[in-house]
Structures are given as C-alpha cells and as structure tokens.
Amino acid sequence: MNLLKKIQNKSALVGIIGLGYVGLPLGLSFTAKKMSVLGFDLDQKKISSINSGKGYLKHISDKKINDAVNSGHLKATSDFSRLKEVDAIIICVPTPLTEHREPDMSYVENTAKTIAKYLRKDQLVVLESTTYPGTTEELLLPLFENAGGKNKFKAGQDFFLAFSPEREDPNNPDFTTSQIPKVIGGVTSQCLKTAKALYDQVIIKTVPVSSPGAAEATKLLENIFRSINIALVNELKMVFDKMGIDIWEVIAAASTKPFGFKPFYPGPGLGGHCIPIDPFYLTWKAREFEINTKFIELAGEINTYQPYYVVEKSAEALNKFKKALNGCKVLILGAAYKKDIDDMRESPSLKLIEIYREKGAVVEYYDPLVPILPKTRKYKYDMKSISLTKEKIKSYDLIVLSTDHTAFDYKFISANAKLIVDSRNAFEQRGIKSKNIYKA
To answer: Using CB atoms within 10 A as the burial measure, which of 95, 258, 278, 357 is most buried?
Structure first.
C-alpha cells in the first residue's frame, strides 16, 4: 500500500520530532482522529511522562494524554532509529537566535541529519519550525536526496518533502491546533498533494501555496506584522505618556471604528517563541540579497527597549515617594510571557529581573503557573515563586505587573500594595484605580 492510501485510510504512522508546545498538541490532534503517533524527543522526562499518561504543559490536561496513550494511538521514544517505522515525519524543533541575532539552525540541521540516516522510500517529511525562506529546499532537500546513497532519492517520487508553518497559540480558548487553517508548500506537486492529504485528516482547512519558500515567508509575514504593530503602540505609549494621554484609552476609542483598524496593545516587552525571534530570520536572509529590513530592525529596537522603559517608569514612581531603586524590594507579578500559560520562552519578566537587579533592587516574583524559574538559554535564576500574603505584599516597596494572569486577585493586591507599576493596564481594566498605581 502506498503512502497516500495509508494516509487516506488513517493507517499511516505519524512521527513527530519535538514534543513541546507545538509537537505535543499536534500529535494529540492526530490521535483524536484515531491516527497513531510516535513522538520523538531527547528529553527523557517528557518521554517517560507521556508514556505514563501524564502531561507537562499546563494548558494540556493529563486526561488528553492518558486517553491517547490508553487507546494505543500515542507513544513516545528517544530512540531515533525508530524513524524507519513511521510513514510521515513532522519536525517541530526550536529555531532560536544566537546572541548576535542570527538564526541558530543547529536543531533543524541535527534533526535533518538524523532523519537522513534512517530515511526510506515512500516517507513524507514536513518541517514546521519557523525559519527563513529557502531552508526546506536549500538545507533539507540535499540531505534527503543523498540519503539514498549511490542511487539518489528523488523528491516527489522516492520521498516527499514540504514545509507547513506551525500556528500554535498556547491556551487560546477560541482556536485549537485542528481549528487553525494550515499553510502547506511542497517541493513538488506530489509532495504538496501528500502533505495536504496528511493535514486534511486533522486540520479544519488546508491552504496550499506554490512552494516551501512561499509557506516559509507566510509565517514570517504573520509575525513581522504583529511585531511592527506592537512596536508602533509601544512607541505611541511613550509619546502619549509625555503628553499626558493614556494609550489604552486611545486604543479603546480607535477600536470602535468598524473598518480599517486592528487593535494591538503595549506591554513590558515581547515574549514567546515567535514574535521576538522570527522576524530576524528574514533580516538575516535578506542580507544575502543586499537588502536592509528597516521596519523589522526598528520594531525590534523599540520592543527590546520596553523592559528598560518599565524600569525607568518604576524609578520615576519611586522618586515621588522619595525612594530609590537601589536597595528597594521589588515584586514582579507574572513570570510567563503571556497570561494564563506557563510558557517562559523569551519572557520579558526575565529581562526585568536582570535590570532591576543591576539597579541594586532586591527582586522576587509571584506566578502560580511558574512555581520555579526554569533555566533558559540566557538566564539561570535560582528563584521560586513567593506565597502571596497580605504581610508579604506590604513588605515590598514596589510591585510590578508584568503578566496579567486571570488568577491574580487584583483587588487584594492593590488594597495592600504601597506602589504598583502596571505594564498591562490590568488593574484599570478591572475597575481598580488608585493614586499609587502607575502605568508603564
């Protein structure tokens, strides 16, 4: 039976490499449609957790994983030689930046080399990791074509290769993985047909495009659009603040226009695996064509400055109480990069901790979703979330709202805090106004 028929009758075994915020929910989307998934990861803790029917991401319930495992549709392994067993391989590995803001392609390259060792005929490989246009055809294709040895494999005949960008939004109540349309670009028409057939089994709508490059560029456009618009409101926030105008009031008023306007909101800096990182993949690639991506660079500069702006506003607020940042006690509310999730990737809270400490402040944090700050590529804080009590709140000179979790008791916090700097307008949105609450 050929691959296309296996996919159509749902007997194809799907292999997913990388069982994180993208790979795990994608795998569960397949198992929900009674397709079998073999997950691959280097983290043995994740492997053991899945195989025992337990989760490790707060927005994915243990029940979902347990049901998938008990049904026999989900298994996980760190043995990559088992790639030979699967019919479709989906790559969901990180694509971070180096310290010089250049693409770190090591995860994709190492994964591709591993796949090439075990690639067999009639397999489909799809890259989902966000990257620069050209990655699929320039990096992956040559590796896989040479996997056949002297008798080179040919894409579209011996194996199938495509790019389909992930569009995961953790804990989004309105859109799950299967409800978000999927863009797909194949190396050949048969590659596209095969990849589209796979995703058609689990995704509400597939959107075929002319090439992997077009699909890669689509993902970048989506995130560059957001990055630039967030930078715009962050800049306007600072300008309007000098004029005594509230940016959140302005956005709310502008949002009443039923056409031609889409609201974006300021904050303490960008976080997550997409917006702070992905635009610079295009910036890097554009240099090859002697093009400077001015909008992207400027947006990055403005958004990167936001944690420093929050600290500056903190110093101004403290100064009104004749206090200095040096030596003061600071509590940061929220460690995750956005509300109601436990995802710490590129969280601006981490940068805030660094800057406050550099200014001589004693810093603690409170986040019920992040009990311990995990090690990241840049930060290795040995910190645990405090227990939030009335006495504890009163002990801080300054409380900084970085992540506006729904679980926070905003009235309780505001009633007991000496001074609050709110970078999300979270308190006012809940009808809480005080002379001791400053916006940043």
So the answer is: 278
Name residues whose C-beta falls within 8 Å of residue 422's C-beta, 6 or more positions apart in sequence. Answer: 401, 428, 437, 438, 439, 440
Closest among 89, 101, 40, 29 to 65, alpha carbons compared: 29
Q: What is the pLDDT of residues 219-246, one digit of tens each?
A: 999 999 999 999 999 999 999 999 999 9
| Residue appearing with tokens 């009590």 | 389
Strands (E), 25-181: 37-40, 74-77, 88-91, 123-127, 159-163
Domain 226-439 has CATH 3.40.50.2000: no
User: Is 274 one of the catalytic residues?
Assistant: yes
3-210: which CATH topology? Answer: Rossmann fold (3.40.50)
2-20 pLDDT, tens digit each: 999 999 999 999 999 999 9
Whether the CB-CB separation of 29 and 178 falls below 8 Å is answered with: yes
Structural contact between residues 307 and 351, judged by C-beta atoms closer than 8 angstroms: yes
Q: Is the pTM of this model over 0.70?
A: yes
H or E element: which one contains 115?
A: helix 106-118
Question: Which of the residues 92, 191, 274, 328 is marked catalytic?
Answer: 274
